[in-house]
Structure to design on (117 residues):
């Protein structure tokens, strides 16, 4: 995954249009951090058509919201097709991956709490 800049998070107290803060780059998955804290983070990502993120497991619940296009997501091998405005929670400790059959942008939110035990 490619990162747009080296800033740890976006500028505070400055309005923005979420879908416009990241562009599509040919043959790439690009991410930009909006907020990054030890307790969690919010990231926006763009996927060019044909790109994918390999299967992974996160120790935390992750909320995904599609902000442009249509995404194909697999959670524990079950496929979901999410369109603009739709969201889903990827449960902690679940195998998941993304496959871009077409371009899409998503907002992901991870809250790192509730799993301390």
């Amino acid at each position: 995954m490619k990162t747009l800049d080296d800033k740890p998070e976006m500028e505070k107290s400055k309005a923005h249009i979420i879908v416009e803060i990241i562009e599509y780059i040919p043959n790439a998955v690009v991410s930009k951090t909006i907020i990054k804290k030890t307790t969690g983070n919010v990231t926006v990502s763009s996927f060019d058509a044909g790109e994918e993120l390999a299967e992974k497991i996160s120790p935390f619940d992750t909320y995904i919201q599609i902000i442009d296009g249509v995404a194909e997501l697999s959670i524990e091998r079950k496929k979901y097709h999410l369109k603009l405005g739709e969201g889903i929670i990827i449960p902690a400790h679940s195998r998941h991956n993304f496959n871009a059959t077409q371009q899409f942008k998503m907002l992901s939110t991870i809250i790192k709490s509730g799993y301390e035990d």
The mean pLDDT is 90. Residues 40 and 111 are 4 Å apart (CA to CA). The domain at 2-111 is CATH 2.60.120.10 (Jelly Rolls).
